[in-house]
Amino acid sequence: MHSNILLPDAFLSQIESIMPSHLSMDEFVASCKRPLRRSIRVNTLKTTIEAFQARAAEKGWTLIPVPWCETGFWIEREDEEVVPLGNTAEHMSGMFYIQEASSMMPVTALLQNNQELTHVLDVAAAPGSKTTQIAAAMENHGILVANEYSASRIKSMHANLSRCGVRNAAITHFDGRVFGTWLPEQFDAILLDAPCSGEGTVRKDPDAFKNWSPESVEEIGDTQRDLIISAFQALKPGGVMVYSTCTLNRTENQGICQFLKDTYGEAVAFESLEDLFPNAEAAITEEGFLHIFPQIYDSEGFFVARIRKLAAVETDLANKKLRNFPFTKAKAKVQQEIASELQKALGLVLPQEDGSVWLRDSEVWLFPQALEPMLSEMRFDRMGIKLAETHKKGFRWQHEAVMALATGREPQCIELTIEDAREWYMGRDVRPDLESSKGEVIVCYRGQPIGLGKWVGNRVKNGLPRELVRDTNLFEA
């Protein structure tokens, strides 16, 4: 129990005034002081639910299904103190993402009756939990624009996307208020998991209320109103937007949604989430939103609203001044040559329908094709995946190309022992008990690609990017 948690009197008074009559304040306070159950989401870009369940059973992990996410599970494991969950082989190879169960709900709401999405925007994407959840549902098709305002979080978000094998994303670094004027009515689905006061996170963050005040709630509401207007402007008519927060007050939740409705009237429709999962009605509001107090599902506090855009709205267009775009789309013959060399070297197949090859100096990139119309409309920090760098003798293939394209069944794969896999993640070359060969190879552990290596005599030279190197508490058998 987090006995050091302090819940301000003003906050408790606020909650008491809005809590439904069938819920208890005593249970609310008690639940806020209980640590969260650990939860994960299986990454279906890397494995299947059934295969992961079998692996978990083998390791003695207990998985309890999260009712609102078919790939989500609460997890119980006895070896947590020996090996942190983030240092398990399954996490490091991208088979799962550590994600709080409540935060899986917004993407489930976004996908409900809306499975085939081609143009999606995640307005506040870092660290990437919901972005990778969306990418898995899209099966890497279409384009997923992942925006993050905080520069310090971009690098870690990109690392998470790469680890999980996401290749249909384009990362932007903007204040989310720009999208309505820069890309009006471009997206068929938008997730706005808005920055908020974080009242619902106290179970994992005892300092959640350190800077909380009624005044700060009102102040952050101004930002949320701007963000939801911009996101709605960027949404195509007929498209769906999910607005969510990890806070509990009505000002940042129902109040923001009602502000959107007051602004755009009949163009805004609230769609009920009462059938999103079994027992969703326990948290449903009269508008059809999910207002999740932590004691209802033994989770974080959360809010989720699903909003449909029924008509176009007027938007002032941005006065754009874009810098010269440094990439050139490779001609068909060059694309074919690169695809042929990649298959010859590593047995990897470039996606023909969803991706196209672009060049910048000596760099070779794979961009999502659905992104191309936007390239002249907005500046992107990073698009798709870097395939290779060219040199005199051919191509130097990249780690993220392997993580995004390899299945572990390619002829060029080599399987490491657990001892060699640990050495690999510590950035060291390995000497597998295999007949030495030549050229680059896909390095795997237990059938999962974990990187790119190159034979040098009887050792495989380590190609793991430096920022991914670990040095302690690595996985056990």
Protein architecture, described:
With 477 residues, this protein is an alpha+beta fold. The protein has helices at 9-18, 25-32, 49-59, 89-92, 105-111, 129-138, 154-163, 179-182, 214-234, 254-264, 294-297, 332-346, 399-405, 418-425; strands at 39-42, 62-65, 72-76, 96-98, 119-122, 143-147, 169-172, 187-193, 235-245, 268-271, 290-292, 302-309, 328-329, 355-360, 363-368, 382-383, 385-391, 394-397, 413-415, 440-445, 448-456, 459-462. The strands form 4 sheets. Strands 5, 6, 7, 8, 9, 10, 11, 12 and 16 form a 9-stranded mixed sheet that branches. Strands 13-14-15-17-18 form a 5-stranded antiparallel sheet. The chain is globular. The model has no long low-confidence stretch (mean pLDDT 94).
Total E-strand runs:
22
For the record, give the distance between the C-alpha atoms at the N and C termini, rounded to a whole number.
31 Å
Outline, from the CA principal axes? Answer: globular
Oligomer: single chain
Structural class, from secondary structure content? alpha+beta
Mean pLDDT across residues = 94
Q: What share of residues are in beta strands?
A: 15-25%
Which helices and strands appear, and what pairs or packs with what?
Blueprint: H1 9-18, H2 25-32, E1 39-42, H3 49-59, E2 62-65, E3 72-76, H4 89-92, E4 96-98, H5 105-111, E5 119-122, H6 129-138, E6 143-147, H7 154-163, E7 169-172, H8 179-182, E8 187-193, H9 214-234, E9 235-245, H10 254-264, E10 268-271, E11 290-292, H11 294-297, E12 302-309, E13 328-329, H12 332-346, E14 355-360, E15 363-368, E16 382-383, E17 385-391, E18 394-397, H13 399-405, E19 413-415, H14 418-425, E20 440-445, E21 448-456, E22 459-462
Parallel strand pairs: 5-6, 5-8, 6-7, 8-9, 19-20
Antiparallel strand pairs: 1-3, 1-4, 2-3, 7-16, 9-12, 10-12, 11-12, 13-14, 14-15, 15-17, 17-18, 20-21, 21-22
Helix pairs in contact: 9-10
